[in-house]
Amino acid sequence: MNLAFVFPGQGSQSVGMLTVYADHPVVEQTLVEASEALGQDLVALVRDGPEDALASTVNTQPVMLACDVAVYRAWRAEGGPDANVLAGHSLGEYAALVVAGVFEFADALRIVRLRARAMQEAVPEGQGGIAAILGLDMDGVRASCVEASDGDVVEPANFNAPGQVVIAGARAAVERAIAAAKARGAKRAVMLPMSVPAHCALMRPAAEALARHLDAVSMRSPAIPVVNNADVAAPADPARIREALVRQLYSPVRWIEVVGELRVRGTTHILECGPGKVLQGLVKRIAPDIPSWTLASSQAIVEARSALV
Predict the structure, then answer these.
(1) Distance of CA 252 to the CA centre of its chain
(2) In what order do the strands lie in the sheet containing 188-191?
(3) Mean pLDDT throughout 10-22?
(4) pTM over 0.90, yes/no
(5) Which of 12, 90, 144, 251 is catalytic?
């Protein structure tokens, strides 16, 4: 048995998302630890919201990191086996690096809060846009972006699954790319309710700020390989990991290739470690022959453990 754990990122959050782990004290303990590291009550934010506060990027990113790590800890506390390889979708890569021992949990929380602030500051509110393009191949999406750019930035941001690509950039250019994608036969092309255009060239100023912060943070070689988003590689050198995290901010998330790399590494089972089921849905489309589970509740943890015996 060769296990891969994958960690979701921004977009999987919801108010009350950890109530389904109420019988796992390690989950609340992890949120308390995160709250102390940031000087903010994340326990109340996750439990009670309000939704707009939870959805704010500067809150969502540390909250999702804390929740991903909390679910991993709950799995291990229940006697679940550890991973052979790890990966995370965008922000989820930081949770994978915490689990692999590259970052201390408190350091990672502070990093992602700075990352979120830098992302928000890089593009003023309302000027950026993100859209999902469904039912159009990668070449068609790329061509739509080129056609729509007209001097503005619009680029593929997430290659999530076959026929499911997210684009990001200047809002007007993203709107033009939506029209171009529909003209090329996209089944659906819609703007998403997120204003920070991650994983495109507009994030280069944020990446520079992140690089300065990462230079001051202690990092270790991973105890478990972490397949990254930017290169679909699993470097052991902390300097290479640091550099890939910086480029991740303005490079597309190559999730289709990441799952393919998990296969190459002999993965026999994939477990989504965090709230929600987004990544399991993508895995089923990319690699339907690899059994996958989501650890989206205490009961799901029990069922996954039983299935892996």
Answers:
(1) 12
(2) 154-161, 164-170, 128-134, 188-191
(3) 78
(4) yes
(5) 90
